[in-house]
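FAQ: What does a multi-protein file look like?

Like this. Sequence, then tokens, then the next protein.
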Amino acid sequence: MRTLGLDVGTKTIGVAASDELGWTAQGVETIRRDSENPESDWQKLKKLITELEINKVVVGLPKNMNGTIGPSGVACQQFAEEVKERFGLPVIMWDERLTTVAAEKMLIAADMSRKKRKKVIDKMAAVMILQGYLDSSS
């Protein structure tokens, strides 16, 4: 069984999954959210959860630098609650402060063009969220 990592934003959801031993996180995809049909986002997640045999979900929690939770954090908490209700899986909220910044720096260091970075940044942030969780629980 595997763990799914999600970097939830208003326009995209970065998705990563652990290996079966729960040691490493790999990027899966970036889901482009459909504001016209939000149900399609849930259908895509359901498909991934089924195909990858997911048994736990880690959702990034964007906190302010002082540790408080702002509107983005509240939206992620609501998203996590809906994941629990829809899929009946345990959901862990994981502090994601600076993961997108770290992912951006890693991609720049890999000499990736700005256009390509934009396509994978959310997936990389999901990898960093999930890997942080996996490292802490091993």
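And here is the next protein:
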Amino acid sequence: MPRNSNNSTKRKMDLGEDLSSLFGKRTKTSSSSSTSSVSRSRSKGAEEVLPAFNQKKCIAWFKQYTSTSSSDTIGPEGVEKLCHDLNVEPENIALLVLSWKMGAKQMGFFTLQEWLLGLTDLQCDSLAKLQGKLSYLHSLLLDSTHFKSIYRYAFDFSRDKDQRSLDIDTAKAMLGLLLGRQWTLLNSFFQFLDQSRYRVLNKDQWCNVLEFSRAVDVDLKNYDVDGAWPVMLDEFVEWLKVHRRDSNTVQ
């Protein structure tokens, strides 16, 4: 995350002081045969008819969040205002999924091209329509393939663009957001990182943390010491075994 005047604002907005842990199938682009003048959604058991997606309306909505100095990009203040209007916290994981939908390159910023890419896919040209898609954005995380794609995206999205690695504080915040409800060993991993020599995570380490969380049992009995895990995870396993042995000795 860039260390500039906007950095603290973006970190607070997108990661927060204490990120909550919330957890699909990615929406397919509508084909010409299914395009109609209206899109339909279910509401209270009845079929609600919504106006068709309007790109000009979507662009006009985008402009509500830009500044006079940058009319083609929503900056940190605009993203914060969007979150306020959506009635969600900036650290809500739905915002990360929305950024993934847009293919946003930089945390705290949405370009017009990114905005149109994501919101055309979602068929949202208004605040009300996007509010109605928040549950859907959360549901995308339930599909393991899409979750993996979002997880990998989060590394590049949240790192400083002049760095190849992700600093530990940001990595821990994003891991908490993505794996907080999924990985029982996450807090132990954080404790390991805090006392370790690691100050950054590279992309290989980041991706292997997800695979480790899925493949290795809490008791570590199925951990293959001769496997192709990064050295960092070998060290974590050894540290955790010692930590558990010491804890049992004290008890």
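Q: Is there any per-entry metadata?
A: Some entries carry free-text notes. For the entry above: The chain is about 50% helix and 10% strand.
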